[in-house]
Amino acid sequence: MEVTEALVGELLGAPKYEHEELEERTRIPGVAVGMSWTPTGGEILFIEATRMKGSKTLTLTGQLGDVMKESAQTALSWARSHVSELGVRSDYWDTSDIHIHVPAGAIPKDGPSAGVTMVTALVSLMTQRPFARISR
Q1: Tens-level pLDDT at each residue, the chain (136 residues)
Q2: Beta bridge mates, 52
Q3: 97 within 8 A of 57, measured Cβ to Cβ
Q4: How many CB atoms lie within 10 A of CB 75?
Q5: 3-state secondary structure at position 12
Q6: Which one of 16, 70, 110, 126 is most buried, by most CB atoms within 10 A?
Q7: Would the pTM count as exceeding 0.85?
């Protein structure tokens, strides 16, 4: 049996996320996409980072477990320690508050692998480069 796009569509049904939706959401600097584990195999996970004028505060929202909160702290530490390599002003954090949001309603999320996506969202935000340009 040959596996074709039509066969995959027939077996799996309509895609939950269209390519266009991924393209649209990740066009904004600070938004990255990763995968999350579920009992049925996994789902797309968007992580959104936003910067506003402030004084070095990190805000986390979404149904995040302790491991994901630690991953966010680690991602921020990594990004802060690499500002010169990324071409970001050294005082970027001195006047910034960062908000990391993981949408997806009331679905609890936890796990260490989201840290990579959080770093990507932060680098995208810091460099003002959309996710698609970073990930290529």
Answers
A1: 888 988 888 888 876 656 677 788 889 999 998 887 777 777 788 899 999 999 999 999 988 888 889 999 999 999 999 999 999 998 898 999 999 999 875 566 677 778 899 999 999 999 999 987 654 4
A2: 97
A3: yes
A4: 25
A5: helix
A6: 126
A7: no
